[in-house]
Amino acid sequence: MGPTITLHMLLGTLIGWGLLSPLAKSRGWAMGPVDDWESGSQGWIVWVSLAIMLADSVINLGWLVVRSLTSYGPQVYNNLQENIRNGNMWGIFGFRQSQNASYTALSSSEHFTPQNLYSRSRSVSPSRKRHEKEELHEIDAPPAHLVSNRAVLGLLLLSIVFCVFAIRLVFGALVPFYAIFLSIILALLLSVMGVRAQGETDLNPVSGISKLTQLAFALVIPSSNPNSVTVNLLAGAVSEAGALQAGDMMQDLKTGHLLGASPKAQFYGQIIGSAVGAVVSAGVYTLYTSVYEIPGGMFKVPTGYVWIFTARLVIGKGLPRMAWEWALGAGCLFAILTLLRIKGQGRWWQAWIPGGIAVAVGLFCDLESVRRKPH
Q1: Taking Cα atoms as reference points, which of 40, 16, 18, 37 lies closest to residue 29?
Q2: How distant is the alpha carbon of residue 46 from its chain centre?
């Protein structure tokens, strides 16, 4: 986090607590105590912050999709056509036919001199050279240390089944099956986007990904459904968890690749760590809730309010007075500013245009929480 993002967060804090909070309090839009998330100005500000987050997320992720399609779409289409022409059905789905490496005996009468090798290399067709070059670039670990496609596919299906079972076990009939499967599909697609964004910018936009999923589920689950908020929260949680874990794993695999570690060992280590971490984190949370009140004075958990307020915002439930009008205006303004930031990538003036996520975070972070945070 550099000075630019910090200054943008400071700008959001000044707008939120120096302008919007006094305005909402004086106009009677938030009559409760200032630090009350339900009826105070702090809760009122969150709606504006969420609208800015949604606008920034939709524009940035949309640009990422468009750029990926324009850059790699023709190549993927050509590879698809080639696999169809060659009858390679496995290649269509990204699987490769197994090729056993072997040695070829050379004739003892054939002598290889530099001139002979040069003439032989010139006789190889350009397509063959390109194919051999691609094969050389694709080798990043010995075959014994790679995870097979069969193992990846099997474990992926097993994890999906376990996810569906766990959600149904905890929430029962509150969440329909089609909503669970749709959230998993969105999580898989958005995880690819998150990994690509992290590889290009070193930032995984998990917050925007979850908000985008919540926005999509607002169109799928009608607001008349009594469980619409619960389903919306669950869908966002599944997508954010998938994108976050995918980004962390890609970082670990990249680091391991640079250090010469085995991808297979890292892969199964991640599975073991995820299984143990899920149990340990639930136990640690139970210990905390047995000692402290959450949310409470020491642990306000502002992100939890952001999540539930996002669900209410996209569904249109529980909005205080004038929150919808200000949220809509802020969203439109920062949609334009985000487009300008995308247009100005690599130019000197981009840093002077406020970033949506940074300003939004500064809006709902109160100064008392910032003061208490250890540095």
Answers
A1: 40
A2: 22
